[in-house]
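ingest -> fold -> write
write: protein_1
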Amino acid sequence: MKKIPVFAKITFKLYLLLIAIYTAFRVALLLLNLDRVGETTFGEVFQAFVMGVRFDIVTIGFVISIPTIILTIFSFFGKKSRLFELIYTWVLTICFTITFGICAADIPYFDQFFDRFNITAFEWMATGDSAFVFKMIWEEPTYILMMLPVLVCGFIFWFFANRILKRSTGWESVNYGYYGIATVLLWGLVFIGMRGRLNEKSPIMVGTAYFSNNAMLNQLGLNPNFTLARSWLDSKDPDNQKVRFMSDEQAIALVQKNFGIENPDPEFPIARIEDFSIPLRFSRNDGESFSSFRQEPLGVAEKSPATDTVSNNYNVIVVIMEGMSYNKTAHGGNTHNLTPFLDSLMDNSLSFNNCYTTGTHTYCGIYSTSVSYPVVFRNHALKRIPVLQYDGLAATLQKFGYQTAYFTTHDKEFDNVAGFMSQNGVERIVSQADYPASEVKTTLGVPDDYMFHFSMDVFDEMAANGRPFFAEMMTASDHGPYYVPEYFEPHSADIRWQIVEYADYSLRKFIELASEKPWFDNTLFVFVADHGAAFDTDYSIPLSYFHTPLVFYMPKCLQSIENECIASQIDIFPTVMGILGKSYVNNTFGIDLQREKRRYAYFMADDKYGVIDHEWLLINQPANEQIGLYKYVEKDIENYIFDYPELADEMRKYGESAWQVSEYQLDKKKTKFLSHE
């Protein structure tokens, strides 16, 4: 050991210290997610931690490389300097404390999304919503508590690094032969460590960590600093800016085939006329309606869709429920009795038990519910410049004389909701600025039940105008920072269950208040989630994050049916139009669930996607060439991709063609249909 140069010994000890600290964060992540591990062995857990050391070494190498070059050069002169040691220690302490902060932030992020920390967490920061996000974090105690381990780990690193440098010896006895050999070996190992693997074709990738069929253990080995850096680099890659699964022509042909479009419009390839001669009020469980229906290609119908139908001017209120996973309901198997009212609605409505959202973020739910377009990877649909116009719910109903409004509990500018909605047919936006300041309890604004209470006067005013109205409402209480009003008494001890109970209580109060109004019987209520929550973690995409209740409630007009057909969040708009019996041009990716069958639902989880039917779940992570086909109903984690290649290819093309055409529609600004008359 005496012949090993001092810079090599210092670097080696610092690596060991840092690996120990990163491992401590990994142990914490595991202990907090033991319920997600499932059946496994000690050997698999150990392998995940060994894999973690590999990713830790990569992270350490990129941070420590330049300081170690300086250390190597300084030690060449064979003179010990306490000033240099202090500067070196403090520089490394600051740099690595930042990485510890990312590790700490990763823990609540993983709890929320079942995904390691990545660039998606900073989308708000780059688009003007950083103050809102920081306030939301500050008001959530569990997030603030994550600062404590960061400071502790920063101090531990400083203490031991300072001790290592202070007690280092052998600065003066420089053997240049050993020095040269050690330099070559050390830097060879550092750069190999930064690369993560010896294979010359590719450095270490996220997919390298996936060594088993256990989704939790596969992710456990990752270092969140690596996933953050990798996702940022991927976001800067021009090839990742646009979806290019296949050619536009091939994708359009597939989508037209799936929609049954035989005579497409030359300018708007997915537009089709939905023509209703009789308003629909009842449906059978197989998805076929009792009333007659005619869908015609564009150019066939001689009369305008708006005048060729007998329709109903029902009011429409769509409630997007924050984080309301189907798994939180008794229908979804939850035994905690969290949503008794929502469950009763599902029993007394036209409800769909196999509905899926399109993404993992609130803006995804708002976008897809409003305009029936899917989200595409990390592209923030509401903040796209310029803000496009769509043939969505508000814009289409506005053409039929509807008054339109949007309600949120907090700042209307967050996620550019106000700008997007105003551009797409919403005439009035009710937000935090409209509520009394005394009712604003957190960064997320007023509690859900207060927003619902406040909305009654607005709906009364709109109803008094003699025209039907449409409103979309976004709840927020089931999202940190949690606030449970004093007047509500939950039966659960866990705050995460209490807030679900409160959200359900708010829905009950909303319907009770509305039922006292003269406009109630003439109003269609729709309930859906923006996204779910990560409960089931059998696969790398937790289905509970996408599985949502979908309820169409209008007791005087809609028959109570539990429908088992595959449905998507993007199907709300066409299904509402079918219930209203209003003919229109459907220039979206949604279908009328009462008249058409959806073969698959598809959804995005930032860097990977899923396609699902009643039996199979396809998961693909294109950047890392990770693809799997699973029997999700049986929670079977065996990958059947090689057993059913044709099925997997069909599912993949179904989803990819839709996303490809969606990108085409956006690029070519074809989201709003323009008549050729």
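write: protein_2
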Amino acid sequence: MPLARLRRFSLVVLAFLIIYCVPIQADDATATFPLKDIKPGMKGEVYTIFQGDTIEKVDLVVIGILENALGPKQDVILVQLLGEKAEHSGVVAGMSGSPVYFDGKLAGALSLKLGVFTKEAIGGVTPIENMLSVNDAPVLPAAGARAATSDTGELGYAARVPLPASFAAQSGAGAGAGEFLVPIETPLIATGVYPDTMAQFSKQLAGWGMSMMAGGTAAASPDDARLKPGDMVGVELMRGDLTITPGCTVTTVEENGKVLACGHPIFSFGSVSMPMARAHVVMTLNSAMASTKIISTGGTIGTLTQDRVTAIGGQLGPEPPMIPMTVSLVTPTEKREFHFEVIESPQLTPTLVALATYNGIVGSTAYGEGYTLQLDGDIQIKDHTAVRLNDLFAPSDMPVATGFFVAGSVQGDFARIYANPYEFPHVSGIHIRVTAVPERRSATIENAWIEKNELVAGETVAVKVQLRPYRGASFIQEIPVTIPAQAARGNLQLVISDAETVNRTTESAAASSQGQLSGLEELIKLMNRDRENNRLYATLLQPTATLLVEDKIMPNAPTSEISVMDHRQNSGAVRVSNQSVAGEWSVEMHQVISGERTLPITVR
């Protein structure tokens, strides 16, 4: 090739690189295109990935500006994507955050799409001015980086943005759902999660705007942190033997390592501290209803610090700590153990832990429906007593897997811990062991009686309880009950029941739920006193007042003591019940007990 011609060719190549590569370079002073200069009919481009790590350019044209669409001074740029891929795929789940440029200057991020079944690839763009303000939002200090807050300091993200009739006609949108812009779905990529688990928990996660789907993981690479606009990034909610990672597209990467992505929130939690990972597009799955990117996650590259109305923001570098979690499933033929790490989030951790527990149960080939499940374990909390997890769960006639009851119990305990009004609980470890017994161990209380109803203090009586097991003959279980010396004289009630009835009767749950304790440690003590499903209980109740003072239960409280408590400044931590527990007895049954019977007795 002649030298002159070679030079001309080199200049053409250089011009090509300048035109097509400059917009997607990381730059601490990225040139931006102001919203005020954007007019209908302007041509621009959006950069995104359809497969692998190759960032592609898609042409677009501006339809108009939707003023205050997301709230005061929160405008949206309405655009139409052009070209063969846009016509084929439409606006794809996972495109959120794809940078939009006019004249080589960053104007914002693609963040919304037009309804479902829409023939035209219509999208909404979050202006870059609104996204950049995320970097100025306060970041939680290290000591409280995982504080229980969902206050974003901004308006909540709109679920639907109505499209003006003039724009609807111009964009070819039909009537009904097509007249609304909705947030582009955030793919929630799950690996190591069984289809049954997805079916059980997808509705809970869908409440956060997440669409759970199977994905994969990729080996970590030194290049993972070399992000540029248009790349994919994920937020690690859980990792290990299973991973759960929502993913979207990077909008900007500054030289100081600050990253903006999505163009809308993931959860709207405000200040957060979650691991940020590199993500890769395996393929784009095209659908007439909702096309989506199938994503795999790579190495951890930093920390997500902001989850705001107009973008998510993070910092490349060190990752935040996660909670180590172990789930063991023991069956008659095998033991399987799974190891995870999970984020600490008051809103998400209870669901994620329940999901991991359920996934561990159904993951054994030796497990099947009809098994009774014994739950054992603990929740380690920094500077506090561990929360004990002990209970028995039997199959029921409802179309719900037994493992789901176990998972729900664990989820409920976490919800109680995080909902406490005293302090943020820093969970340091989770250990769960589930033992599966291949039979249905359950029994219902049919009847109960004693030989005589008039007793004296100190006397012992055998309470006979008739129970009917699942598909078995009724049998009699005795509970020896000794009337306490301090029991009130007169008419009392002897309640024969399951654990739930006793927990409800003692009102410990009511005391903890109303914030009437002195702190988290007292709540944990109450939780650890909860009765177990596999025991049969006899509770003697008398018509005298009980004082519930923090985590302490004070039966037979005299009127004078109640009056003193009422006048104390901290009487908000005191609750009065019109019944007292004179005594409680139980026997272990090795099966789940349900039901209750009340026996009237007279103490002379």
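write: annotation protein_2
The longest helix spans residues 3-21.
The longest strand covers residues 270-285.
pipeline exit 0
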